Structures
1.
Amino acid sequence: MPIQDPTLSDFSDALLDQPAAGRIVDGQHRFPVRVYFEDTDLSGIVYHANYLRYMERARSDMLMRAGIDQRAHQEAGGGAYAVTALAIRYRAPARLDDALIIITQLQQIRAASVDIHQQVMLGAQILTEADVTAALVSPGGRPLRQPKAWVTAFRQVMGDMRSDQGK
């Protein structure tokens, strides 16, 4: 039996033991989700509100992948994102054990908010899609201008470095 270098093994285990993470490819954030029993209703299909949870996880992961630390910003008193508008369309159900991909695309960046289009996919099939507006708000609920570094990060995610947006 070969002897493994414990540090290499520990490093490999640490990488493998990470939670699901998305990736940004060609202006899209792609986030994998597995449907578990707790996600389904009595008929074995995903309960409608759980699609919103999947999309929220994908948006949060996209912020992390873009280098935006919303937790630190909030803890420093800088506020947090709140969904201010949502339009959702359910096309087909997801079922127990389905491997889904949540695709997130930034549509428009404004001073205090961002418009986002999201799709829940099973292979090439769109199961659910939503248009979401998320606004940065103060701890008291007032709109806040997004930090310039965040606007730049959003432009990079979009693959769009034009300077005329987000002003």
2.
Amino acid sequence: MTDPYQQNNPGFGGPQYGPPGTGPDLNKPQDTAAMPQFDAQPPADQFAQPQYGQPQYGQPNPYGQQPGGYPPGGYGPQGYNPNDPEAPWGRDQFGVPFSDKQKLIAGLLQIFLGAFGIGRFYTGYTGIAIAQIAVTWLTCGIGGIWPFVDGILMLVGKVPDSDGRPLRD
């Protein structure tokens, strides 16, 4: 059985695709001037891309940012901002500056040493600290529930420092 669409032409190798006579005429010589020359180098500016967007590798950065787009590394303790003298530890979501005291330290001091009012001394409330000492010792330890609950409230963040600033994380 012969396939009329795949006739083997001697000297051209391979099948012919499509109906006979529709492909290129392989019997006539090709025009070499119309063929692309792969060894010739194009002029330098003929296919140049416009220089928009990011600068190319090795070029100076006109925007003054660090490579990679990251801000410069911070120095000092975490959260410390020397550019804002009114709030060196940052501000909360309402714009109130954070305290220099930490929630975790205040809460743990109040839970474990609350009978001595240490957590309240740390946050600046000396009057409440003395009251906690008095209540705990005058009730023979039963008043120690107050400093314990107060320490939990400090850990949750419900107790500000003596200046009214929220304790920082």
3.
Amino acid sequence: MSRKSSTKQRPSSAPKKTAAPARAVLPVRPHTGPEFITEHQIRAAYAARLAELPLIPITAWQPQPDGTVRAHFPTGASLTHTPTGFHALTPCPQGAVHHDHITTSHDLHAAATAAAHCTQLHGRPRTLTLAQAATTTADTQALTCSDIDTGLANRAASVETEKPKEHPQP
């Protein structure tokens, strides 16, 4: 009889290593905001709820370098929380920003209404309407070059004849 070679594996004396089960993957929340919430943000959100201001999420309060926090509204207005309370910054149609101290939601509504109906120019040059321009043109007199030369000559002659006034002595 012939002897057959065996393909059978022989047990080894070393312990067998089994593969470790794969760890379950933890769910990851998408990064949508700051990684932490500051005490100032919590304080501002809590104070806003106590003052019955519109609901503003804690993460909507953005920390500022001066230690205050600010929340922005879709209307362009913003609300700042400081240790002394709330301050509304509301833009007006004239291009300025109105600053108002806010204690309740009624104050915030009044500040927004006042800014929306503002007609003060806030120091900017005024743009005339066509009706105002027509009135201004009618009040202006036309001058020729000879009129201007005569006026300058008269002014120069009066300057030469004037004597400076003496200052009173104390």
